[in-house]
Fold:
Amino acid sequence: MKIKSAEFVVSNSDVAKCPKNHLPEYAFIGRSNVGKSSLINMLTDRKSLAKTSGKPGKTQLINHFVINNNWYLVDLPGYGYARVSKTSKKKFQKFITNYFEQRQQLVSAFVLVDIRHEPQTIDLEFMQYLGENAIPFGIIFTKADKLKQKAIERHVDDYCQELLKTWEELPPHFITSSSKKIGQNEVLGFIEATNEEIEALKNE
Structure:
């Protein structure tokens, strides 16, 4: 997939105010220091589509970007280590769960995971939540440029083995590096293929 256009549409904390049309949506979420904004900018070939910051927790709203005028990339607030008050954190959690449970246009979530670390309970619990609510998702491993190839393979295998303790089938996963543009074609190719499947079903 070639990204011809990527435009900001709206930010809000109320799922009812999200765009009303029925373009397919792909939501990106992860711990607040996982490199989500950098990944979004890499995928879209835009230097500052999503705001990056040295401070975790920069994204605090549901952010919609329309890509090629035919699908939405949704940038969601991070979870975990954001330095915000408990009240704000509860508010984030509420509108995030509202989004996932109410947004009918959502096709798939992408849960971002720092490939350098062993499986984190907070990530596994979030994936469990998605599974329990029948929300399709894929895993995007970030920061692959920080490890050698054998270490990448070992860390991904460790994660898969951990997931297989509770999952019968593994979700799709992608290995990425924002600085090296690793994984761009794979993630966008998955989205493109999924959109084509949706269109084919509409035309049956």
Observations:
- The chain has one domain: 6-197.
